[in-house]
Structures are given as structure tokens and as C-alpha cells.
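Encode chain A's predicted structure.
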Amino acid sequence: MTGSLRCREVERLTLESEDRPLSSDEQRLVEAHLRGCGGCRDFAADRTLIRRELGAVLWPGPSDALVFRTRRLIRERRPEAATAALPAWIIVALAVVSIVTAVGLTIALAGVTPDMTLADLPVGALAAVITIVQNALMLFFAPVVLRAFRARRRMSEGAR
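Encoded structure for chain A:
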């Protein structure tokens, strides 16, 4: 920006300064204009006062009834958004698989050293690596499976 600014440009830059920092040229031109223009100085002062007063206002939050109704509508329209407990058999199966995997990995990887390559690993260690990859894939696809399980359960409950 070169030269001097008109009042309309200073007002625009004053408003923009609330959303972004002005460049050094813009800031310099605005300050130069404000030194000579009482109207724009008043405008900038009013904006500062408004921002300060609005910042001090305690805005009310939504009522408890509104929060309750909103959550109920979300559950009705998007049942998958509602939290549902996992069946006990899934939790037990995950716990058993986790314990067996941890024990097996510990035994299989006991003799592995950092200087070994994949070709140097014993069969048990390769099985451990495959198990790790398998578990990673299971964690990736678990949400898909759980969504399908919940959808099937909702359908069977709706048929009753």
C-alpha cells in the first residue's frame, strides 16, 4: 500500500484487524490517518470498546432441557452415536486373546536381537510378527464389525 488512506479504507482495515494482524505498511498508514482524522479515531475507539464490553458479557449456555432434547434427537436419528455396551463374550474373548498373544510374543521374541533381519528370525518370531500385524488389522476393522453388530441387534429389536 502506498500513499494515504481514505476513511472508508481505514474503517475496513480497522475491522480486518480484528480477524488478522495488519501488515507493517497497513498499520503505519492506519496510524498516520488516525493522527489526523478524529472520525476514524472515534470509530477505532468505539470498536475497541465494543470488543471489550462483549468480552465481559456472560453469555448464557443452553438449558438442561434443550441439551436433553438434543441428545435424545441425536440418539433417535443416529443410533450408532449412542453409546452401547459391548457384550460380555466379546470382552472375555478380547481379554483371552490379549493374554495369549502377550505370553506367546514374549516367548517367541525372547531370543531376538536388534541386529537380526527378518530372514534371521526363527519361525516363532515370524509368527509373532504376523500376530502383531493381525492384531493391528483387527483394531483397524473392529469399528466396522461393531457397527454391523449393533445394526443387526437394532434390526432384531425392531422386529419384536
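The first helix runs from residue 7 to 16.
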